[in-house]
Amino acid sequence: MRLLNMLSVASSMVSAQYEFEDASFLVTTEATTTIEPPTDVQERRRKKKKKNKKKRVGAPEKERKYSNPKFRRQRNTKWNPRWEKNEYQKLEKIHNTGMLVDIFSEQYKRPMTKLSNRLETLRKMVKADSEECWANQASGENRNALQRYPATKQRIDRWTPKFDQVKEGLYNYFEKFAVTIRESFGKCDESAAFHYLNKLDYFRLKTYFRFCTDFPGSLPICNWVTKDSQGNPVSRSTHGSRPFKLIEHIKKYQKNNAAKHATKFGLKQFKG
Predict the structure, then answer these.
(1) How large is the average pLDDT for residues 138-157?
(2) Band of the pLDDT at 143, cuts 50, 70, 90?
(3) Stated pTM of the model
(4) CB within 8 A of 189, min separation 6: which ones?
(5) Cα 85 vs. chain centroid, distance in angstroms?
(6) Which segments show compositional bias classed as Basic residues (predicted)?
(7) CA-CA distances (angstroms) from residue 254 to 49, 244, 260, 265, 269?
(8) Please, are residues 179 and 76 in contact by the beta-carbon 8 Å criterion?
(9) Do the domain assignments include residue 195?
(10) For residue range 18-75, what is the model confidence (pLDDT) as tens digits?
(11) Among 8, 161, 180, 251, which residue has the fewest nearby CB atoms (within 10 Å)?
């Protein structure tokens, strides 16, 4: 009788142990199923990229008027050495005589003088770099591989720099400047041409912004150029850092922004 009691007690203890283990297993299984899997990094990036792409839909093409592929693929079949020399001389005349500065009021004379000097520096750099590029192209293994001037007839452009009509004057100035950059490099270095056209796009929008701030509503482009990407008015104090989309990809590689990015995400910043 005593032996039977001991066996029954042992069997009840074993069954209780199995019940406890089964219950713990169920609890553990239930807990693991409620844990959400970690978010996929690539999926987050894809969604972010898609979101940013939606924001850019309908953005005015004026932001990248000259550095866009459509303009860069075009060619002036009349371009020749005399034409090129004549265009550089006209641009130099505009910068050195203050023709671009004179269309502004006294309030903007000083900042526009600085901007005009920067445009003259851009002209000199384009001329020097394009000359160097074609000089290197004419020597070594690439000799006579590319044709610099598509036309042999020495004709010139009859365009005369003047800003009596500001709308036409500014349009012609930046249009001729952009064509000069594009044709000077040709197919010798299209990457360098894109770089300088990007700069010209920025200076163009900066010029239009200042003119539209100086004379509000005087040009059709003023309604757009004086507002940021969200449609909010841009103040005079922030016109220098206006969020032009054409240089967003350049800004994120600048040292200040790179340092902020590294600090925010705990990354090591390369200091070269």
Answers:
(1) 73
(2) low
(3) 0.64
(4) 129, 130, 133
(5) 30
(6) 44-57
(7) 21, 15, 10, 17, 12
(8) yes
(9) yes
(10) 444 444 444 444 444 444 555 566 677 666 655 544 443 333 444 678 988 889 999 9
(11) 8
**71: which residues sit within 8 A by CB, 6+ positions away?**
65, 178, 182, 197
Q: Cα torsion at 138, 144, 145, 146 (round to 10°)? A: 80
Expressed as residue numbers, the domain containing 159 is 61-252
Residues making up the chain, counted from first to last: 272
* pLDDT for the residue numbered 95: 95
Closest alpha carbon to 131 in 140, 123, 141: 123
Distance, in Å, from the CA atom of 136 to the CA atom of 162, rounded to the nearest integer, reads: 36
69: in domain = yes
Candidates 140, 87, 85, 92; CA nearest to 116 is 92
Cα–Cα distance list, 152 to 58, 147, 159 (Å):
42, 11, 20
Check if the beta carbon of residue 222 is closer than 8 Å to that of residue 131: no
Rg of the chain, C-alpha, whole Å: 33
Residue at 179 is within a domain = yes
- Does residue 216 form part of some domain? yes
- 227: number of Cβ within 10 Å: 14
Model pLDDT, residue 247:
40
| Helices and strands, counts by H and E, the chain | 10, 0
pLDDT digits (tens, 9 = 90+) for 80-121: 999 999 999 999 999 999 999 999 999 999 999 999 999 999
Q: How many CB atoms lie within 10 A of CB 222?
A: 17
Per DSSP, the residues of 200-265 read HHHHHHHHHHHHHHHSTTSSTTHHHHTB-TTSPBPPGGGGGG---GGGHHHHTTSHHHHHHHHHHH
State the total domains in the chain.
1
